Amino acid sequence: MTSITGFARKGLMLAAVAGVATSMLASAPVAAGTLKIESWRNDDLQIWMDKIIPAFNKMHADIKVVFDPMPPADYNSAINTKLAGGTSGDLVTCRPFDASLALYKQGHLTSVNNIKGMENFSSVAKSAWTTDDGKVTFCVPMASVIHGFIYNKEIFAELGLSVPKTEAEFMAVVKAVKAKSKYTPIALGSSDQWEAATMGFQNIGPNYWKGEAGRQALIDGSAKYTDAAYVNTWKALAAWAPYMGKGYKAQKYPDTQNLFSLGRAAIYPAGSWDINTFNGQADFKFGAFPPPTPAGQSDCYISDHTDIGLGINAHSKNMKDAEVFMSWVASAEFAELYANALPGFFPLSNHKVSLKDPVAQEFVNWRGKCKSTIRNSYQILSRGKPNLENTLWNVSAQVLNGSMTPAQAAAEAEKGLKGWYKPHQ
Amino acid sequence: MPGFAKSGKRFPTHIVVFLAPAVIVYTLFMIYPLLDSLRVSFYTPDDTGALSFVGLGNYETLFFDENWSKGFWNALSNNFILFAIHMLVQNPIGLLLAALLSLPTVRGRNIYRTAMFLPTMMSVVIIGFVWQLILNPLWGVAETLLDIIGMVDYFQPWLGQESTALVTISLISVWQFVGIPMMLIYAALLNIPEELTEAAIIDGANHWQVFWRIKFPLILPTLGIVSILTFVANFNAFDLIYAIKGGLAGPNFATDIMGTFFYRVLFGFQLQMGSNGMGATVAAMMFLIILTGVIIFFFAVQRRLLRHSF
């Protein structure tokens, strides 16, 4: 029976304590040339300390860099508070799209247009951190995540299955797994809802809505969620339900990961960040394949989603060093270092990078044969109420649960968008 | 004291001094934030974060814009279901346990009392985690246990279904907090002088009659307090649902209550940006609902109860 007021109060006190602590740090005489990086990637602390910062210091020994992460769920509200209160670090890790755009509009982030190395990024890579008119980019793109499917090679060999290329083959494979073995064909749960939308809908969808073309069409209003492309995506998703684990309605993300890494499931609809988890936990060989194409389609599309950027705090006292660090982040050296330290997070620059992790290399190879796009709800469309991304989570989970038909899901998403977004009215 | 009488009633400085610490701390950390949050509910932020006055605009949005009102009423009705389950299950069980514990012939009552109060002292995150493991359809022990008693066909992924998720979470909360009404009622029962019950027994009453005719009327004020505590706690609840179902309180908002609704509005969720103004508005509504509940309770119930002194 603890309460939200208790929760908020604790939060306030923590914030106050953190504020005092950081202001004490800030007022303490720090060595000239110290840069503090704010981040939500607390999993990466070791990698920054052991690999990335030492590599940077080989060239710039005079600039001291401190990586100061916090838990992901706290990041957005904490960074807002810190920037508004003037206690934030010099460099700020950027969430894609509106969260960072709001920080730029409030004057907390500076333009990075003139940072050396920005010419190495394509406009799609920069889209997540660029103003709507395309004029100002305020964060250097750091990493993307790619969606696809990870599969258990040993189960495939045991049952004599080959990697599916088309949707018909995919369904034949899951049918075979269900008929021939005790293994769960598809490891996916709908309890946390986001997997249904992110690993399901946004994973297989780009093939249906033709990647960037479809995404832009939704933004300019020439396509609607009720169009065949979207309804068919949900139809394809709904077809998975009979092949998911027992009680998938109450299966959470960690359950799903465990189901696969314990070798009890054949196929795992994945985000590339899962590679690292499975590298540590799975004691069998696993591989990856891109989203299977619908019948009669020869070209393929993948979700290559801009996920992490790095921006400069507009009120940093150490602007010059910050810019030096930023142009290093845009360099080929950083791209190679980061991609290999964190398999599954791929550099967004045009530098040619070779990866040591075979599965990560497999994911990144798809960029060569398929066209990349990003999740279609992220740019502009999730600004209104009801929030489109939340709606997609909700309806995609309901489609998997069987409590909503694909057509109803499409109607619900379009209705929400129509309520506030002019091009859809 | 002639000096005191001469100056009339001297200003009681010492009372002010004694009250000051509590009043200052309470005002600074409770009353001021509460009033300021009410103030913020009349403002709305623009792109740059600057607040502008909109009067009752936020309240109008909350009640008359379908995108907001649907979520609000859903959260409120779910909250009443949560409260009803606590009143109908938690408090009667608490009463029953307290009554059993206070029977003069029970052995090892301290062990029972401690065991039943233990979950209350555990972190909600742990409770949520443990129950998710127990009820987990993949590796949970619930299915095995049902299998042993031959009822495995009744097993369902209760936490994941729209029709069962809220009730399941409510019952988990009941399991955790049943210790509180039990302890309060137990303490009240111990306070009843033995002469009363002994006299009744000499007059020929059995234990059943003693409980309902003598003890129950005497602990009514405590049951009132328990009800009001349950009401306030349920309408401020947040953490168990957040720990089990996340901020979107699925499936299809079936477990969304005022606390989780408020969390999404104020702090934002995933791509949804938080809003100070609307967040404060929802918080103000929660405050009003709780205040109304407490006022009704005090005037309609508590004042009619007699306090007995022995």
Tell me what you see in this structure.
The complex is a heterodimer of chains A (425) and B (310). Chain A folds into two domains: 194 residues, Periplasmic binding protein-like II (D-Maltodextrin-Binding Protein, domain 2, 3-Layer(aba) Sandwich), CATH 3.40.190; 209 residues, Periplasmic binding protein-like II (D-Maltodextrin-Binding Protein, domain 2), CATH 3.40.190.10. Chain A is globular, with a radius of gyration of 22 Å. In chain A, helix 8 packs across helix 10. In chain A, strands 1, 2, 3, 4, 5, 6, 7, 8 and 9 form a nine-stranded mixed beta sheet that branches. With 425 residues, chain A is of the alpha/beta class. Helix content of chain A is 47%, strand content 14%. The relative contact order of chain A is 0.16. Chain A has 17 helices and nine strands. Chain B has 310 residues and is mostly helical. Chain B has a single domain, classed as MetI-like (MetI-like fold, Orthogonal Bundle). In chain B, 70% of the residues lie in helices and 3% in strands. Chain B contains 14 helices and four strands. In chain B, the strands form two sheets. Chain B has a two-stranded antiparallel ribbon with strand order 1-2. Chain B has a two-stranded antiparallel sheet with strand order 3-4. In chain B, helix 2 crosses helix 14. The longest helix of chain B has 36 residues. Chain B is flat. Chains A and B meet through helix 1, helix 3, helix 4, helix 11 and helix 16 of A and helix 6, helix 11, helix 13, strand 3 and strand 4 of B.
